[in-house]
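Dear Dr. L.,

I hope this message finds you well. Following up on our conversation about the binding site, I have prepared a predicted three-dimensional model of the protein together with zinc ion. For your records, I am including the exact sequence and ligand specification that went into the calculation, followed by the structure tokens. Please feel free to forward this to your student if that is useful.
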Amino acid sequence: MSKKIDGVVFLCFDPREEANLWKNVKGELILPSQRFHPVGQLGTAVVLAMPAYFPVKFAAIMEDTRFALEEFARGNFILIGHDCGIYKLLKTQKPTTLIQKVQDTISGAKCLQEHFPNIPISVWFKKTFSLEDEVLNKYNRLPSTRSFQQIYTSR
Ligand SMILES: [Zn+2]
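The resulting structure of the complex is given below.
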């Protein structure tokens, strides 16, 4: 294979979300001329934020990413967070707030940056009814018509 595709999208592979997440990512965050490869597990952004809690899932994501970068994908990352069901697996006492999930997604991005330094990353969170105001207030971003709110970028 000669020409590499444009990059890698990290997203949750929960079947209740994955089809729509991927469709919306392709329709809204990737140009029609671009090709990105989806990499993930159930709860991908959460796994990246808490690798010690999910060592097997984390290792699989790292292995797939290294392989993609070596073989067929250029170094451009998009990380997608959402109101993820995997938090049910965490034995936390208090409920996890949306803003905590947003912050975890950013932690996941920092983890990717540690393991793959110098690769640009753009991080988006799937909007929910209550999320946008919280995120807009905290991160002072402009509203957008996309299904996702940008919460972090290395650029
Ligand atoms: Zn999820």
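In brief: The chain has one domain: 7-148.

With kind regards,
A. P.
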